[in-house]
Fold Bifunctional protein GlmU.
Amino acid sequence: MSVMALSAAIVLAAGEGTRMRSNKPKVLHTFAGKTFLNRVMDSVAALEPDTLAVVVHFQAERVSEAARSYNEHVAIVNQDDIPGTGRAVQCAMAQLADQGQLNGPVLIAASDMPLLDSRTLRELVDFHSASGNGATVLTTILDDPTGYGRIIRDREGNVLRIVEQKDANRSELAVQEVNTSVYVFDAALLVQAIADLKSNNAQGEFYLTDALETARSAGKVGAFTAPDPLTVEGVNDRVQLSALSKTYNRRVCEHWMREGVTILDPETTWIEDDVQIGRDATILPGCFLQGHTVIGQDAVVGPYTTLIDAVIDDGATVERSRVQESHIGARTNIGPWTYLRPGNEFGEDAKAGAFVEMKKAHIGNGTKVPHLSYIGDAQLGEHTNIGGGTITANYDGVHKNRTVIGAGCHVGAGNLFVAPVEVGDNVTTGAGSVVRHAVPSDTMVYSENTQHNVEGWKPAWER
Ligand code: UD1
Ligand code: MG
């Protein structure tokens, strides 16, 4: 499908989002792992407008910073103190006109529709150009249209105007077709249509919706109904945020189930957009799969597991654990209750067990760290076993230092490796060893800790 080139796209992000009752602007709230702003910018940018503008006002610094860090080419428009979606577009068009003549269609989108997708936008722009409209509004039909602007049509079905909830009479309130706050205008017509907006309405604001009625006198005005109502659902408060998140997550889970993933309880399994899951993987209840996590075939994840940018290879298991930016090799078992901070690299058939914390640890094939350990800034060779309660003392108060332990080692329980320290292959260490100096291969090491028995001892309360 071809899309007529957009001369500009304007994202409206100047509002506070009062109904969120938040210290941060609504557009910086997250939906399935990405902010509202990033989501709408993503969808709009996919249409490759000549200019992508974001209108800011409430916490302008914070919002423009977020917009710029997401896309450095974005044009930031500062809306003045005059409120309203119409004013936002007036400010944007004034700034864009300063930068050069605008020709062709301009897309306008509010930023509180987290599921607005580029496909719907493309269809809207295509419809706009095919119908020869000067202005097209994206609409949807809702069982409960409360709160939205209503689309008012004449008897022939032509779009006449949009009336806001607070300005509508009884028969207008009964209309179920609503404005989504996404529009395409031809640039010249838009300039004309916003020139004389008035604020004589219930909210005392310059409504962009009024521009549609004005546009009618100078061009053809139409409406395009979003094929999938979910894509244009707006979020104004946290109740809607939760409801939409749940509906969307259900869809994501159903997608993966249809791809051959067993998800025992989609109600408690939260999967973000960029996650990949292999066939015959099983996701047990209470899991959060986030970021660019990749799960291999036949892997079992959960219950109660959080994976953030984790790579879990085929047949691995992760139970009741948190894994961040780490690679778990095939058939390796993690958990229960394992905490993997960023930078761990596991080979195949390895293990990290209960109450084990790791950070920047490289664990060789078949190597096991089964119980109660901290392994940080360390490298463990293949087929080594680490006794319970072993700690790598990697921090001397200034620097993080490395511990290297070779292949085929048997580390006794309760060992302390004071880094930097290096241990060769096939080394056995005694229980409670404190290893401060290098140990060559094929060596047994133990450190003195003299046991003293004081016989006939009575505890204080008996004395
Ligand atoms: C708006 C529409 C309404 C539509 C609804 C869809 C108007 C007058 N009303 O109402 O017809 O059904 O969206 O969700 O346009 N914004 C600015 N500057 C401002 C005010 C708002 O940039 O001065 C931005 C907001 O950040 C937001 C968008 O415009 O992204 C919409 O504002 P919001 O206050 O949510 O409008 P609604 O009351 O939802
Ligand atoms: Mg809104």
